[in-house]
């Protein structure tokens, strides 16, 4: 269910991205503002990123097969990396246009009309970005979350552009337009770096957040009654899938069936909390205890 919702959200991102692109292109067309041109240029990248996320989500939704026995979940991280790269390219493009604006400052035509169109596009992006970030985290979807952060970076850019456009006719300082665009591009560049950093961490099997790991330890401790301890706990994320593996120490005289029942109970609790998890438990006799790790309550 989360994957189907993520794919629908990706389709909506493509449609909304095209609408926002048209609004920002119209704003640049009637004003001739370099900052608005840069903002529209970033929206083109938004649409391309939305398509990349859509393709990645479709691929990640494929079930496990003989060539990919652990599934295709990491495909989402590739999309997030691509989005991070596109954000960085957008920031560099804005810097270039800001530099050209410094070299040849020009007055802005129809600033009120242009600001109105850009403000409408910004509001649409803001609402949709907040939705994507919130839902992406809930669905454990790196692609959806990265898409939301990408759009939020675009919102910051647009706010800076609007501030510049509002002040230029009031102050007559034409260099203010490219100056603000250059400052905003630095924020966009930082956002792109953060998106790529998190995505590369997922591709490199980085551990989940400390609070997630602590919750896993707590669930094992509370639901492994009859066992003695759990050690060598290792976890990683791959898109929406959480991989969990550990050794479970049980009394030496416990039957295989009893140990299996404990494992089933622990797996059920973990899957109820994580929604989608792949769990591997290695059962060991009492003399294998390390007196460390997760103590069973």
Automatic annotation (TrEMBL):
Q: Name one GO biological process term.
A: intracellular zinc ion homeostasis
Principal location class: membrane
Transmembrane stretches, start-end: 9-30, 36-57, 77-95, 115-133, 153-173
Which intervals hold domain Cation efflux protein transmembrane? Answer: 11-204
Q: Which SUPFAM superfamilies match?
A: Cation efflux protein cytoplasmic domain-like (SSF160240), Cation efflux protein transmembrane domain-like (SSF161111)
GO MF annotation, one: zinc efflux antiporter activity
Would I find Membrane among this entry's keywords?
Answer: yes
Any Pfam family: ZT_dimer
Compartments (UniProt record): Cell membrane
Any keyword Lyase? no
Which membrane topology term applies here?
A: Multi-pass membrane protein
The GO cellular component terms are: plasma membrane
Among InterPro entries, the record links this protein to:
Cation_efflux, Cation_efflux_CTD, Cation_efflux_CTD_sf, Cation_efflux_TM, Cation_efflux_TMD_sf, CDF_Transporter
Which residues does the UniProt record annotate as the domain Cation efflux protein cytoplasmic?
208-285
Q: Which UniProt keywords apply?
A: Cell membrane, Membrane, Transmembrane, Transmembrane helix, Transport
- Family membership, please give it: Belongs to the cation diffusion facilitator (CDF) transporter (TC 2.A.4) family.
The protein in question is named Protein p34
